[in-house]
Amino acid sequence: MLTLAQQLWIGLTNGMVFALIALGYTMVYGILELINFAHGDLFMLASFLALTLVGLLGLATASGPVVVVGLLGVVLACAIFAALINRTVDRVVYRPLRNAPKLAPLVSAIGVSFVFQNLGLFWGGLPLDVMGGGLAAAAPKSFPDLIPSTNLLGDGAAFRITAKDLVVIGSSLCVMVALWLFVTRSRLGKAMRATAQNPLAARLMGIDVDRVISATFLIGGALAGFAAVIYGLYVNTIKFQDGYQNGLYAFTAAVLGGIGNIPGAVVGGLVIGIVRALSDQYIGAQWQQAVVFGMLIALLVFRPQGLLGANVREKV
Amino acid sequence: MRASHQECRFPDEKGRAVQRKRLPRIAAALAALLLTAACGGDKQPTVAAPKGDRVFITFGGLPPEELKGKGADFVAAYKAKFGSTPEGYAIYGYVAAQVAIDALRRTGRADREALRVAVSETEQIDGPLGSWRFTTDGDTTLTTMSGNTVRDGKFAFVTVLGGGAAAGSGARAKTDLATIGDPAAPKTGPVKFVSSLPLTGSASAQSGTIVNGIRLALEETGGKIGDFSVAYESWDDASAKKGDWDPEVEAQNADRAAKDPSIHFYLGTYNSGAAKIAMPILNQANLVMISPANTYTGLTKPGLGEPNEPAVYRPTGKVNYHRVVPADDIQGKVGAEWMKAMGAKRVYVLDDRGLYGKGIADVFVATAEELGLTVVGREGTDPKAQEYRSLMTKIKTANPDFVYFGGTTQTNAGQISKDMVAVGLDAKLMLPDGCFEQAFISAAGL
Amino acid sequence: MLRVEQARAGYGAVEVLRGISLTVDEGEIVTLIGANGAGKTTTLHTLSGLVQLTGGRITFLGENIAGVPAHELVRRGLVHAPEGRKIFSRLTVLENLEMGAYTRRDPDGIARDLARVFELFPILAERRRQAGGTLSGGEQQMLAVGRAMMARPRLLLLDEPSLGLAPLIVARIFEVIRELSKSGVTILLVEQNARMALRLAHRGYVMETGAILLADAASALLENETVRAAYLGE
């Protein structure tokens, strides 16, 4: 019983990261019907920035309060970095293809994903101490353990809750609530939802759709940047292929929750995190991917619109 | 109507007001949370950093610092030339190249068949690795291994393991090389050496050090072997797409080498899986292949791999493949012996489901059971998984005193080491030579 | 207020509007009638900037608006309530109306207009927390009209507001259009119910295959033999 609870807790914590990345997929898809394959790799680049900054600021050996302030700065920098890159890619790559067949931006997104991966590979080879001194560009990079993972319930306790878990869950929840308030309460957020539901009508309401799209890429990117720092702090390892693996799970989460649906992405992320944990415990670690994707297939057969998805969106 | 008018005041203002009030509160909560987290432990935030001395790594041969005689000379020459300490595998690249050079000297002809026979009859007396020769299956007779741990961010030698005579290690009769192959084969001109190793991707550090080893051996010849001039090309068998060795690229490399009559030595591969692809291609071209790193048992040893191994890699029936490292049957075995000697009783065995990792874990399990260790669990891992907390939590309930992971740095050994600590799994970790590289130490944050 | 001269437009290589000219004066209700596929909807789309003008001129309030993006035209007071209502089905009724006022920054004026919409369509006030997609067809049309009103249009382009609705609701919608007109909104109405449209409008244009066939006072068109035969079913 305690083991089950422990696995649920681990799954929940992991799921938060998937959910944060999934939000970026789902928001862009909602507006452009574009699966932004580069999103996972954007997340990876942000994680490299996070590690670089942690190294430059010397946070690994700093004292508690400095670490807190430093990390807030790193979060901010990574969010801005990823947001700007995401928007720039939209401006330069996707926007000229706005009226092209859907396949064109999709293939371009895959191209961007490769460019990002190679940038990550290059970045990993920089002669920085945190990157292993530039010796092995592709090797996994250790992200310093800035938040203690000692058991808050005591060393011998059967259930394990660490400060690290609480930071991941707590800060992710805060960001999600803020995002929710933004899309439901703010003028731009509402315009975003309106554009996602009916871009033509949105234009006729005087909504500058290009601006809304830019804002979507900015926000999705910022979430990926935030997720990257959280991921680094939690998993403590980053590598240039992380974008692929996490992107795949996050994209699955978005589809699972109903692509284009913001709460759906969060639910999908948490479900995947939990299924992953339970599958490791009760089925076997080697079946993890098979179980996750099997679940996706089963869901798509019985509920193609996803867990929270509305029925197929009305066409213009 | 007036009432409803009042009520329907545009909620945008209300909404913004709410946000204005809530956002700082959220930010404050976040900051507080981080603060408690960072100050929650002791003064040092890195208090939970994993300790290197609970990690044990077996390696085929001795680590560079422990090498004596010509081995120590090699390390000194390497440091002088490349400005860094060689990684564990560098010396095997060096020796593989020496074997090839020696064979060419003895043959004196650029003939593939004669070179193949010459290589198979190699005998190094007091070489960098000591004294050894090849068995009829192309294995080295060396069985000396080392047990290492990690101290202060570096590998630290602990003990010598194994060392008995290998099967089929008896002396071999020497053939008169002049009678073999085409007597009219060229006796001068260029002879090309190629290596096929994963230079792109996560194994690039070990590959790079092997390439350096090869370069060093070739440069010691002064560019001339007998009347031949030496050319060397370092090929990559990895692709950026895979971030690791790529079967397609390896097949292309082998094919290219087989078809190029100026190539006489194929030094590689690093990964045993890649060797499986290259071996039959090169065998049909009768081109000598010397691996500085393959350890999968089935590549050479009948009865220890799949039923059709190793015949399936030798369509012509001839043995053109040789390796200068001890195979996994020896490493898996000494690993289990070492673990037993350290007083372990219960071990949980993981592998990355790859040829190397699973093969070595299989041998480990067989020996461990013979020695009376209890294998409390056996599982394959997803080498691309982000983290293994769930798996480690599960392992924790099995209460082992050791975890054995058949895998490499690229298949996430560093993450496994970290996540053991992250979930409070208080067991030691043993790893095979695929993790015997600095990149593992840095990935594991040890 | 609006002057269209020899406008040409289409989709890709297909030219739908083959040089149409029309004018709408301040305070008028002008209707555009014609068979399906005559180009009425394309005319409205071209006016509101959704379809690119390929030839001719469009001036609104004395300014050339060719190439001005759709969202900018809304700001200038040219508002288009499209065919098929196109409400935001997962936004609430209230949010739909708010979206109508997207370009405006005068909270007091917005609140007044919102009250007015609820006054004209009390059912919307009742359902303001409901998702737009859950409304009936008639209610959705009311919402579409109400949403367009929230933009405080100077010229309102209405496309087929009666499509698929029960007669009672159609009557209600037309009543509201008349009231809007009285309050000073200029209206260009596209309708397949030609009789109702001509009864409401001051002037009318008859379109056929991308060109204006007839232009006259609405009352005259109601008497016109061709119109009676082709569009009034007499």
Provide an overview of this structure.
The complex is a heterotrimer of chains A (316), B (446) and C (234). Chain A has 11 helices and 2 strands; from the N terminus they run H-H-H-H-E-H-H-H-H-E-H-H-H. By secondary structure, chain A is an all-alpha fold. The C terminus of chain A is likely disordered. In chain B, strand 14, helix 10 and strand 15 form a beta-alpha-beta unit. In chain B, helix 4 packs parallel to helix 6. Chain B is globular, with a radius of gyration of 27 Å. The relative contact order of chain B is 0.13. Chain C has 234 residues and is of the alpha/beta class. In chain C, a hairpin with a 2-residue loop joins strand 4 and strand 5. Chain C contains 10 helices and 10 strands. Classes of the chains: A mainly alpha (316), B alpha/beta (446), C alpha/beta (234).
Q: Layout of helices and strands, plus pairs?
A:
The complex is a heterotrimer of chains A (316), B (446) and C (234).
Chain A: H1 2-32, H2 39-57, H3 64-94, H4 103-124, E1 141-142, H5 163-185, H6 187-197, H7 199-204, H8 209-235, E2 237-238, H9 242-257, H10 262-282, H11 288-302
Antiparallel strand pairs in A: 1-2
Helix pairs in contact in A: 1-5, 1-6, 1-8, 1-9, 1-10, 2-3, 2-4, 2-8, 2-9, 3-8, 5-6, 5-8, 6-8, 9-10, 9-11, 10-11
Chain B: H1 2-7, H2 11-40, E1 55-60, H3 69-82, H4 90-107, H5 112-120, E2 123-127, E3 130-133, E4 144-151, E5 154-162, E6 189-197, H6 204-220, E7 224-225, E8 228-236, E9 238-239, E10 244-245, H7 247-259, E11 263-268, H8 272-284, E12 288-291, E13 321-323, H9 328-341, E14 346-351, H10 355-370, E15 374-380, H11 389-398, E16 402-406, H12 413-422, E17 428-431, H13 438-444
Parallel strand pairs in B: 1-17, 6-8, 6-11, 11-12, 12-13, 14-15, 14-16, 16-17
Antiparallel strand pairs in B: 1-4, 2-3, 4-5, 7-8, 9-10
Helix pairs in contact in B: 4-5, 4-6, 7-8, 9-10, 12-13
Chain C: E1 2-11, E2 14-24, E3 29-34, H1 40-47, E4 53-60, E5 63-64, H2 70-76, E6 78-81, H3 93-100, H4 107-120, H5 122-126, H6 137-150, E7 155-159, H7 167-182, E8 186-190, H8 194-200, E9 203-208, E10 211-217, H9 218-223, H10 225-231
Parallel strand pairs in C: 3-8, 3-9, 6-7, 7-8
Antiparallel strand pairs in C: 1-2, 1-4, 4-5, 9-10
